[in-house]
Amino acid sequence: MNSIILQIAAKYIKALLIFFAVIALLRGHNYPGGGFIGGLLAALSVIFDGFAFSVKQVRKTLKISPENYIALGLFIVVLSFIPSVLNQLELMQGVWIKLQIPLLGEIKLGTPFLFDIGVFFTVIGVTLLFLFSLTKVE
Prior knowledge:
Layout: H1 4-28, H2 34-52, H3 55-61, H4 66-86, E1 96-101, E2 105-110, H5 111-135
Antiparallel strand pairs: 1-2
């Protein structure tokens, strides 16, 4: 598509979609679907660029290939299993650590959040790979 209005709007909409993707990821790690919904929103931002410009151009400007997003996501998912195995717990049982951050206070980070980050990147990669395979862009 060659719409100037769509191309200008794409910059702002892409930033908004990425912002909401991060919000969904951060909010959702305590509730079901955070990484999945966030990944879909992040992939949608790239897909919107494909509508505004061209899929071929988006594929060239994409810094990380969809296959690498999938690999990174699956690697992070596997990493989220390790703390429970090391603590001799069930495979996907959550393990949390508490970090003391000077201006923010105490923050609890856990393996469910790490798992959601892995799902986030995997969903981005699968969605983009699906889009690129539908458009047959090499």
